[in-house]
Structures are given as C-alpha cells and as structure tokens.
Design brief:
Strand order of the largest sheet: 9-10-11-12-13-1-2-3-6-7-8-14
Radius of gyration: 20 Å
Largest sheet: 12 strands, mixed
Amino acid sequence: MKVKKIICLSLVLLGSVALAQSTEGVITYERVIKIDTDRFPEEMRSMIPAERKSNLQLIFNSEEAIYKTVKQQEDINQEVTAGNDRMRFRMRTDESEFYTNLKKKTSLNKQDFFGRVFLIEGEDSTLEWKVTSEMKTVGKYQAIKATAMRDTIPVEAWFTPQIPVALGPGNYKGLPGMILHVSVNEGQQTITATNIDIRALTEAEAIVAPNKGKKVSREEFDKIREEKMAEMREMNGGTGRGGTVIIRN
C-alpha cells in the first residue's frame, strides 16, 4: 500500500510539472549492444569488438512518432582466421524505421533484411509494465523505474511523466511518460537518451510513416526470417568450420 501511495504521489508531482511541458520534440538515444565473444573460438575472441554503439532519434508529438537510425558508423566486413577456422564477421548499421500512431493504436516497422525491404504491419502492442517506487535523474528529468518481461527476457525502463507522452525508443512504450533509458536482458542491450530537445517540430521534421517495401504481418516476416536463417545454417554447415556472423544494430 505504501509503495502504491509513493508511486501515485510521484506521478502527481511530476505530472504537475509536465503540464507546462511541450508534447513534441526530438530525442537522441545511444544504443549499446554487447557482443558475446564466448561464442567464437578462443583464438578469435581478441579480434572481435566487445560492443557496438549506434545513435538513433525519436521524432514525436502527442499522437505519433518515428524512431530511426542516425547513420554515423561504417559497416564492418572482415574475415577472421585462426588456424583452420575462418569466419566472416559483419557488423551492419540497422537502418530500420519504427513508426507508431498512438491515436490509431497501430505501428509500422520498416526492416531491411538481406537486401529486401519489408514493412511489418501490426496493431500497436506494449509490454505489461510494473511501475516501481525507484526514482533517479536522467539528464534534467526525474525518472521512475518500471520492469517487464518480453517472452523470457527481462526489460527495465526509466520513464518521466515530465514529458507526458506514452512513447519511448522503438516498441518500448506504454508508460505514463517518455521512456529515457532501457536495459534489456540485464544490460546485454541498453538504450539511453543522450540529448532531449523538447520543442515544436520543424517542417523538415514532419513525421511520415515509411511507405517503401513489401507489406507483411509480423508472423509472415518471422517466417521469412527463419527460412533465410535456416538456409544460411545449411550453407555454412557443410564443413563444420567457418561461416558468416552478421550483427545488426
């Protein structure tokens, strides 16, 4: 009961400040993906980077948003050889776009997969968040911790009611305020707001849903992806050595 009272009081206090804030702007996030080097032969591990960083932007207003990559890192495409083991290692910047329409409760995800562009349609869905009483400062904003599970993977998010829009990076949303930090699978992936620019959007920043690509449902895309990955496993499994590892972020 005390925890609930603290949460309610925190939301009310922060929400009173939020009323004076704009509900549109541009937030830049840094995404860090840790690479599990243990999956590679021991003699190769020192040649594999431990993590991959990229910047993404969320352009939003009170009804819709688009989340997309800010291209700044070159793709890595190198061959790693150790003894009889040879592996091609690719790190590609994910140039996907994730469009959300809060009013219509729909989403559209533009995904480049092996040279083909897909538009993955679906009804907007959110995680079943549990809001806690923990608070901390992210930038100049007071944020509250929430937790959830995506299948078997734990997700931790910090959101601020001072930006009263139920959005966040990509499909991490659905809390009573903007999500400024996300930790997935105990820090295996983190997404942190590095620049929060709350203001009226310019004409050049108009939010437009992606429209180029083959429209498919999430189920159809998952089937296409699984078939392609199975094909790659079969191609690389002939000798038992070598192969290609592709990491997107």
